[in-house]
Amino acid sequence: MTENILDGEGDLHTPDHAHLIDAEIAFMWVSTAFTKQGRTVLAQTEEVMMRTGGWQKARMEQQLYEWFGHKPDYIITLAGDFCSQCTDLEFCALVEHELYHIGQQTDEFGAPKFNREGQPKLCMHGHRLC
After folding, report:
1. Whose CB has fewer CB within 10 Å in the chain, the N or C terminal residue?
2. Which residues sit opposite 74 in a β-bridge?
3. What gap in Å lies between CA 63 and CA 70, rounded to an integer?
4. Exposed e or buried b per residue across 47-74, where buried means at least 16 C-beta atoms within 10 angstroms of its C-beta
5. pTM score, two decimals?
6. Range of the domain at 6
């Protein structure tokens, strides 16, 4: 993803995602899509949040390290049944759609926010940007 979409030299580079170049994004496969409120869900982007404490937090962190080797900021889950039979164009569109859910925070004037290290402050966006 970094080489092809985020990097300015990538074949599928999208400048809209420049704020994600240093983001920790992990991808995960699940075997099948699921249905929610009458719609088939083919992918989902989630911000990794440790809202629990004690042993629950420790178990969650351990599982993330076992799956990904690190604790990502975001996880994009893809339905393997769809992705295994869709076209390259459909797959790229699905990944692109999910990346649009990770936006950059803005201040009250609409200017992008950055952390102390100068990296973009990220947040989740709904479907309004897609």
Report:
1. C
2. 25, 47
3. 10
4. ebeeeeeeeeeeebeeebeeeeeebbbb
5. 0.88
6. 2-48+74-129
Residue 67 included in any domain: no
The answer to whether the CB of 76 falls within 8 A of the CB of 30 is: no
56 domain residue, yes or no: no
DSSP-derived secondary structure for 63-121: HHHHHHSS--SEEEEEEHHHHTTS-HHHHHHHHHHHHHTEEE-B-TTSPBPB-TTSPBP
Residue at 93 is within a domain: yes
pLDDT tens-digit series, residues 43-82? 999 999 987 778 988 899 999 999 999 999 999 999 999 9
> Structural domain tally of the chain?
1
Helix, strand, coil percentages in the chain from 3-state DSSP, rounded to 5: 35, 25, 40
Query: Between the CA atoms of 53, 47, 68 and 25, what dihedral angle is there, to the nearest 10 degrees?
Result: -150
